[in-house]
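Retro notes - structure team

What went well: the batch runner handled both jobs without manual restarts.
What didn't: labels got mixed up in the shared folder, which is why I'm recording both outputs here explicitly, each with its sequence directly above its tokens.

Job 1
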Amino acid sequence: MISSFLGDETTEINMNRVCDLLDKTLINQLHLMEEKMRCELNIESSINSGSIHLAKSRYIMGQNAVSIARLPVESSPEFSASTVCEITEVDNMKQFRVVENDAENTVNPLHWFGVLVPQNLHKAKSIFQNTINFVAECANIQMRLLENMANMDMLNEYKKTLKS
């Protein structure tokens, strides 16, 4: 009788610990969701701001000077992106990191539109480059959200085993 009582007490202690862990994991999940929404808003506002600067550049240079006709096509010489995304591992978690590309055949996209481009085009370029950082940050948060959900599922399964 004493062993069954102690067994029930140990199960109750484990159940309380699992419930506490579930609560902390859920609170962490809510914080991550809030962080992801904030990051998505940053992406949206950056894209809007960059687009406005592109429109101003197009107005200053003329509609044909800043258009899709200036972008490279399949027959254009090959080039590498000036910024690349690397996957690194921090604390046993994969994370995306944006780095400058060291390849020789990188091209400054502003040169597609001429040598003397308006300041707005430079501003748009820097805004869009910053947006890439927001996208990488958002992807990192998404991976943490998925890992957190997996932890919650695992804790719920363990909780079910304690109940039975």
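Job 2
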Amino acid sequence: MHSVNRALKLKLKNELCYIRTLSTVSDIRIYEVGPRDGLQNESKFVPTDVKVELIHKLAAAGIKNIESASFVSPKWVKQMSDGTDVMKTIKRSPGVNYPVLIPNLKGYETAMKCNIEEVAIFPAGSEGFSQKNLNCSVEEGLKRFKEVAVQAIKDGLRVRGYISCVVGCPYDGPIHPKGIAKITEELFAMGCYEVSLGDTIGVGTAGSVQRLMREVLNVAKPENLALHFHDTYGQGLSNLLAGLEFGIKTVDSSISGLGGCPYARGATGNLATEDLVYFLYGLGVNTDIDLVKLIEAGRYISNFLGKMTESRVNRALSDRFKNHSDIVKIAACTVN
């Protein structure tokens, strides 16, 4: 009898957990980082016209937030050296947000010539990564980004914050959630409307994500946070589900699973946007994103780069379907 009761309690607990998960994902905002974070680590230079076409294809698929360029020094990230040309060439679709990554005031001043509306700043969650990626300490990096945030808000722009290496660092090892919560708090104090928590090297698991969320939610509301997972160990979607259970509403992803970091050896690409959208449709979330067009965008950039897509959904579906609704039925396991 006791074993039966325990089994019933466990079943009830699992069902309640599932119901809670479904109730928190009714409206998910997808923040596409492929044209910037996805391409920055590619050794083959991607010409401006290809980057622009990729951005156009993503917008045509229904993506509403597309991080399009970076204004870091071309000395350090040559792939992003044409940020000005990209931003001046894209044809902007109504209702689509085209944010850019900004490292300092110099980069900000250049970006301001390109009719931008949103900037992203990116302190590190560890001292080791901050030194490698920004050539300064975490504290110095925050001071630098505060200057950008203050000026951007003064100019009427939105500011988004990223924190890299939120659960693990290639130089410092595991990262304590309390330190990430402190940086998160400082970014909101600067005026960031949202902070994205990035597992830059993809070492996170559902357990480490849950521990991180419990700590960060002491200083922030879930609707003001985003999740940014790299899929190095194949944990991207399970980590995402763990985060969604805390009420997170925004998820970063990259078309075709592109990504990596010049200063995080071994880190692979981001959670693939195709996989994310398919996953969300399976949960009953209507993202208003056309998977047929999204898969086409993924094939477009993968073909240019001369490599196979990292999106499992893209590989599985390829060009088998012409109708988006047919793919949604598969994702939802809908029976007619």
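One thing worth noting from job 2: The radius of gyration is 20 Å.
We'll revisit the folder naming next retro.
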